[in-house]
Amino acid sequence: MRRYEAVLLDVDGTLIDSNDAHARAWCDAFAACDREVPYSRIRMLIGMGGDALVEHLTGLPRDSRDTKKLQHAHAEHFKREVPELAPIVGARQLVLHLLREGYRFAVATSSGADQLSLLLEAAGVADLCELRTTADDVDAAKPEPDVIRAAIHELGVDCSRAVLIGDTPYDIEAATRAGVETIGFTSGGFSKESLGGAIAVFEGPADLVASWARSPLA
């Protein structure tokens, strides 16, 4: 019997090389709102939902008007980055391999629905990813567990029979709080050590497919 029935897929840093672009967009957003926040501080928080990132860096309440203004500014700046983004090597290959292996899967991301559509197109997997759970579907994004729980509900599986593939410590935290295990990728710029809560860590989609026989998905 296979260990899992279903797979949850993160997108940023997992299927598309976008984490640095998000950090640049946040820098621009803070600057546009007269707040100077170093890129290095922002970069280590990429993977969090925007409201949580703003609260962590500024102390602003997640539902405040200023937070929403910063999130809007980030979204506008990030849109300009999207045309230059590239898929992580092996992204489409991984999704196709999940289909061939008979896995049910759903996207589970802290991005909003509109932004997610752009990202999946840029990653070359939009036609393969029908089930999508985004920050727009829940009250709180990662590292809160809401997105993971919503995706599990959408798939109709027990949390013990699903695994998340993600690239940040916030993916792991959200999944753990939802009772779901995580396979980590270092393709998002986080070290193997910082992904220590994952049950296995690979360099990215291509590495997981190449190492499939010894992976938790075999």
What labels would you give this structure?
alpha/beta, 6-stranded parallel β-sheet, DNA polymerase, domain 1, single chain, Rossmann fold, globular, 218 residues
Describe the 3D structure.
The chain has 218 residues and is of the alpha/beta class. It folds into two domains: 6-17 and 86-214, Rossmann fold; 19-83, DNA polymerase, domain 1 (Orthogonal Bundle). The protein has helices at 19-32, 39-43, 50-58, 65-81, 91-100, 113-123, 146-155, 169-177, 205-210, and strands at residues 6-9, 104-108, 132-133, 162-166, 181-185, 200-202. It has a six-stranded parallel beta sheet with strand order 3-2-1-4-5-6. The longest helix has 17 residues, at 65-81. The radius of gyration is 16 Å and the shape is globular.
Number of helices: 9
Here the CATH topology of the largest domain equals Rossmann fold
Helix content: 40-55%
Instruction: Give the biggest beta sheet.
Output: 6 strands, parallel
- CATH-defined superfamily of the largest domain: HAD superfamily/HAD-like
Uncertain segments of ≥5 residues (pLDDT<50)? none
General shape: globular
